[in-house]
Amino acid sequence: MVKRHHFLLGKWWWRFKTETESLWVKVIRSIHGLSGGLLLEGESHHRPTIGSWRNIVLTGDSIEDLHVPFKSSFVKTIGDGGTTSFWHEQWSGGGKLSSMFPRLFMLERYKDAIFKDRVQKLGSSLTFSWNWSREPSGHTKGELDHIIDLLQNLSFDSNGADNWSWSLGSNSSSLFKVDVLSSAIDAKLLGNVSSIHPTFHNNFVPKKIEIFMWRALKKRLQVRVELDKRGIDLDNSLPHIESVDHSIIFFKYALEIWERLFRWWGLGSFSSYSLIEIINEDSNISASTHGSKIWQATKWVCAYIIWKNRNNKTFKRKCFIGPVTLSEIQVMSFEWISKRSKLKNLDWLVWLTNPSHYLSIV
Description:
Among the domains are: 79-161, no CATH class; 191-360, no CATH class. Helix content is 49%, strand content 4%. It contains 16 helices and four strands. The model is unreliable at 41-45, 192-199 and 224-241 (pLDDT under 50).
């Protein structure tokens, strides 16, 4: 799972690429190569194996595993070509030349060549300096002709410096933004949840609660029914009827907790038959926008704590005590909502004795 600090580590990719005159960048390059070992094809021998820089490099893998095109989002604009890998960096407007022209790349003697090692601009003309293990012919000669055509149409200033831009998101300045990367990752983690519930996002609870609810509603929690569908054989000692709804609602202790929650809020008896019904249950309650979010956040916390305590009971043989679990829900929901909502008129005593008071809060 991608953690919040991955967004910040991702920023070091941008800093490494743009702060080329910094001493720390020069040190990294002297150790790990021109790209710093940021997982360019052909540079696996430069990949760091220990240290803080390794964690930064591996952040790219973690983000890419979510199908966020993080590595390819850094796009090079050619100046004098002095800091750009000819084969491994994305500067052509398409992909990397090593991937676009694999036959020709195999003939390259020095696969870490920089752009100006291969191309020089004299006035309006280009000169090429190739270093082949043998002269290209056949298909490879066709690839070489394609590269030359591409270079002839490339606009670059040989008197300027190479620059980076960032293509992810709709960032008009083309600069790296942590919040844009965060949004792209969240979109992959949470998926398209608008079809499940129009107000699925709730910033009154931590992101892990939102992700848990998304997984639960998508039937992606590790319960017997869902694992069986994926062909995963389980220990027969585990519960034999175990769906998501059963684990969070109809499990003996879970049902007791939901009934206690509804009585605590003064909303009558609990009568939902699925998790989606619980999520949509507030449609019958008269509440303000903030009030709806508070009630929704409380239900999400309840589901999360039931799931956590159910796992503790099943796998760690810990007791599942209804009154204790409700107290945990009361404490955690109040702490998260009071800190994250920034509502100034939340009172702990009122929360314990009459939480429905907050249904009308504005």
